[in-house]
Amino acid sequence: MELKKKTMMFTYNNFGQIQIGRELYQHDVVLNNKTVERRQKKKSKPLRAQFGHTPLGPQENIPWDCGELVIGTGYYGRLPITEAVIHEAEQRGITLKIMKTVEACKYLSESTANVNAVLHITC
Fold first, then answer.
1. How far, in Å, CA of 58 to CA of 91, rounded?
2. What's this model's pTM, rounded to 2 decimal places?
3. Is residue 5 scored above 80 in pLDDT?
4. Which CATH number fits domain 26-120: 3.30.70.100, 3.40.1230.10, 1.10.520.10, 3.30.200.20?
């Protein structure tokens, strides 16, 4: 008999909110080893003028302790990601999966691997 690892359920049906398990969040979230945290995007605010939107930057609480990092780029896929974040993932040997947040939620709900995530829930 094969045992299936239990996965967390991620639901992103409404712009501006995400449900993880039974909890509803109305802010960007970070999944760090199955623990949900608030994204610390204020640390990337100084980069806003350069990107036209607050990007995912290297000073944030990015959950690097994983083999794969999923980045949900929002409802329309507009979250910019700095080159520094992409470079850091390469240096650490972490596979980046970058997709719209609705797709990221489907992927995370089906994943049993060593996966962490940053999920943008608006634009």
1. 13
2. 0.92
3. no
4. 3.40.1230.10
